[in-house]
Amino acid sequence: MLPDLKIVQLRHFVWVAELQGFHAAAERAHRTQPAISLSIRDLESKLGQALFEKRNARVTKPELTPFGLQFLAYAKELIDHHDRVVRDMSLIAQYKSGHLRIASVPSIASRLLPDILTRFIGEATDLHVSLFDDNSEAVLTMVENQQVDFGISSLWEPESDIRFIPIWEDSIGVVCHQAHPLASEAQIGWQQLRGERLIANGTSRLLAGTSAEELVADSQFYISNMISLLAMIEAGMGITTLPRFAFPAEAGQLRFIPLADPLVTRDIGIVRLTNRSLPVAAQALFEFILRDNELEPDEWR
User: Fold this and answer.
1) What is the residue extent of each domain of the chain?
2) What does the pLDDT read at residue 96?
3) In this predicted model, what pLDDT tens digit does every residue of 16-63 receive, in sequence order?
4) Might you report a single GO cellular component term (predicted)?
5) Which CATH fold would you assign to the domain 98-167+268-300?
6) Of 17, 75, 131, 143, which sits with the fewest C-beta atoms within 10 Å of its C-beta?
7) CA torsion through residues 212, 214, 218, 222, sign
8) What's the pLDDT tens digit per position in 124-183?
9) Which residues partner with 25 through β-bridges?
């Protein structure tokens, strides 16, 4: 069985060798000189070889044996590796290092996450972040396949291994060009949209099961890409319905009008695997988001 070499003993050995004295090493270690001598003897016993030549009255400085000289390089290497591991793990434990992987629906990824991540990361330059921007179904798939630490989505399967923690509430509205007759309305009912050229999109399914469901069926166009959708509306091609978070902060010539009849809302939250711990950085971000929205992290552990 290999001997168990203690890092503290290796440090004592290196200090005696480099500082050329047991007294100097004792001061460096904040120990007594007999304690350092005992530590070195125990290390020599484990190695089965002497590290220092036998001392005599005429030699004031300890001299390394050939074995001790050879072992010195290995001892330094072991100490360096130990200290590097401890530093790295300490940074990871403080979520200042590592790799954070998140998947999010585009509305939150573009509207809320930039500010959240900027405040969370701060000066942690060694914390790497991968953000995957996709629809709710894709977000759930990435969480289930453990491609990401957690996701942000408006959909989840209650009977699955996915846990949903609601964070934000979003409401549906009508988006049109500012020159459109509806643009001056403070709020709108779906009946006012009859006869309008409607453009459906991936979020139109939120109207399913409401009195406005026929808006989806009556849509003349379907556009899945948000950039293309907004460009078509800016060009005057038609109008659409969108959650408020999906409406860009810099709207240009577009208007968002709340849909009040019916009032349609959706919950958006964090989706994560049930009974599986998050990596340190992901857990810290998860709790940061909860606290940021005045939720108690302990309730969701």
Assistant:
1) 7-93, 98-167+268-300, 169-266
2) 66
3) 999 999 989 999 999 999 999 999 999 999 999 999 988 765 557 889
4) cytosol
5) D-Maltodextrin-Binding Protein; domain 2 (3.40.190)
6) 131
7) positive
8) 777 889 999 988 889 999 999 999 999 999 877 777 889 999 999 999 999 999 999 999
9) none
* Tokens matching residue 132: 């995957």
pLDDT of residue 298: 65
If you count them, how many residues does the chain have?
A: 301
Could you identify the residue written with the tokens 């989706």? 271
Rounded Cα–Cα distance for residues 123 and 143 (Å): 28
Tell me the C-alpha distance between 91 and 93, whole Å: 5
What is the C-alpha separation between 190 and 210, in angstroms, rounded?
10
Quote the tokens at residue 84: 């590097």
Percent of the chain with pLDDT over 70: 94
Q: Residue 44: which of 83, 12, 79 has the closest Cα? A: 12
Contacts of 15 (CB under 8 A, 6+ apart): 24, 25, 28, 29
C-alpha span between 64 and 81 (Å, rounded):
23
**β-strands 150-153, 254-261 pairing:** unpaired
